[in-house]
Amino acid sequence: MKNIYDQRNISMMMDLYELTMANGYFLEEEEKKRVAFDVFYRRNPDGGGFAVFAGLEQVLEYLEGMHFRPQDIEYLRSLGHFDERFLAYLQDFRFHGDVYAFPEGSVMYPGEPIITVVADLVEAQLIETELLAQINHQSLIATKACRIVRSAEGRSVSDFGARRAHNNDAATYGARACYIGGVGGTATVSAGLNFHIPVGGTMAHSWVMYYKDELDAFRRFAKRYPHNCILLVDTYDVLKSGVPHAIQVFQEMRAAGIQSQYFGIRLDSGDLAYLSLKARKMLDQAGFPEARIVVSNSLDEYTIRSILDQGGQIDAFGVGERMITARSEPVFGAVYKLCAVEEKGVMEPRIKISENIEKVTNPGIKTVYRLYNEVGHSIADLLTKKRESPEEIHYMVDPEKPWKKYSTQGLRFKEMQQLVMEGGRRLLEKEDIGLIRRRLEDQLQEEVWAEEQRFENPHRHYLDMSPAYYEMKMQLLREES
């Protein structure tokens, strides 16, 4: 989409407590203070070894365009919760903060800040809900899509999920996330229009049912779409009528001199492994080894892998509800936590303590490095204090096993966050979605261990700390306790 604000203002898409907290801060604090918030998540979906970062472009559009209309102010006034001075402040509201973020399409791991927002306290509070909504949704779908694409082992995967998405935004932005995750295209036209994603589709059961005679329906479709002729063969009986009728139409096309660029059959029900094997044999014996077999029907990484393990003869998968809704685990769980507060011009670290160890936060403004060995594989991510340089760090500490120390000698450091918005003005130009997609492809091919890409019991990617950062965190814990 050119910009979400070209069509509507979504600034009011926030939890009420964002506004009540902001109203309270506005009235309680005599002077503006800058704070820092981190966005991070605690666990990879589906027990995977990593997740995929998506949604940054929509976050930047939101922050750059955020404002409150007169009707928004009137609605807030009607609630009776807000001081008139705060409502006057909202009338002229613009976001003026700085945003640091991973490049979109990056592989990411639990616990590390994928976005850090540094802004005035009130501004930082107001943006929480929409920022998380964008990142949680698209990162979840991109991660699921990445798993499904890997399960297909090089075969084409397309997004067929719009009709089962939770609404039109989920379908459109979900298709964007699917493409980042590696799918070859989408059936969702709005996503093709707005994000320049390849679009495609086959035919509907209703076409066959409307014309009643299956062979007549196939002939009519082939006449209209000779160069994209994927015939849906399971309306009546796949092997007794669907495939034989499709073969007859392909023979007629060949006799008429029509060289179709893309033709074949689609299976949308039944035992897909068995039917694809039988259909492949029938197509080959009829002289059409180039005819493609496309399958759909409640697919995900597990069903696709099962079909292929059974020898299924599939050229392309159309994946719908289980990808567009991430049905197996439909919540990503990224959070937005305060990590620093400005005191006398210095950003002082803050920490949240919990009875649940995984909910204890990593304090302060920090740098995230990804560490690579001599052959270019990523071996760990590292949290350091903001001004630490790689030359100062001779070993890293495992925060769960602090007695273990790992040398950094010979490792290459790559800083993961970059400044993408400064003073409320974006510095990162809108990236081509193909570039974002290739970023993920390159990381999976060149950097991420195969052991981390396993579906079952993947290798854990470590998030370690520099000695100075670890000691700072331990000192805060001692002080707070």
List keywords for this structure.
481 residues; nicotinate phosphoribosyltransferase; 2 domains; seven-stranded antiparallel beta sheet; six-stranded parallel beta sheet; 20% strand
Q: Describe the largest sheet.
A: 7 strands, antiparallel
- Total helices: the number is 16
Distance between the termini: 49 Å
Unreliable residue runs: none
The CATH top-level class label of the largest domain: Alpha Beta
Which value, in Å, is the CA radius of gyration?
Answer: 26 Å
Classify the secondary structure makeup into a structural class: alpha/beta
Major sheet strand order: 13-12-1-5-3-19-20
Q: Number of DSSP strands?
A: 21
Beta-strand fraction estimate:
15-25%
**How would you sum up the global shape?**
globular
Q: Give the overall average pLDDT.
A: 96
Q: CATH topology of the largest domain, which one?
A: nicotinate phosphoribosyltransferase
- Judging by the overall fold, what is the CATH architecture of the largest domain? Alpha-Beta Barrel
Total count of domains: 2
Mind telling me the CATH superfamily name of the largest domain? nicotinate phosphoribosyltransferase
Helix content: 25-40%
Task: Describe this structure as you would to a colleague.
With 481 residues, the protein is of the alpha/beta class. The protein folds into two domains: 4-141 and 330-480, nicotinate phosphoribosyltransferase (Alpha-Beta Barrel); 202-297, TIM Barrel (Alpha-Beta Barrel). It has 16 helices and 21 strands. It has helices spanning 16-28, 56-65, 70-79, 84-91, 121-126, 128-151, 168-181, 189-195, 205-211, 214-224, 238-255, 272-285, 301-309, 321-324, 433-446, 467-480, and strands at 34-40, 51-52, 98-101, 107-108, 115-120, 156-159, 185-186, 229-232, 263-267, 292-295, 316-319, 335-343, 346-349, 366-372, 378-385, 395-398, 401-407, 412-415, 418-422, 425-426, 462-465. It has a seven-stranded antiparallel beta sheet with strand order 13-12-1-5-3-19-20. It has a six-stranded parallel beta sheet with strand order 7-6-11-10-9-8. Strands 18-14-15-21 form a four-stranded mixed beta sheet. The chain is globular, with a radius of gyration of 26 Å. It starts with 15 loop residues before the first helix and ends with a helix. The model has no long low-confidence stretch (mean pLDDT 96).
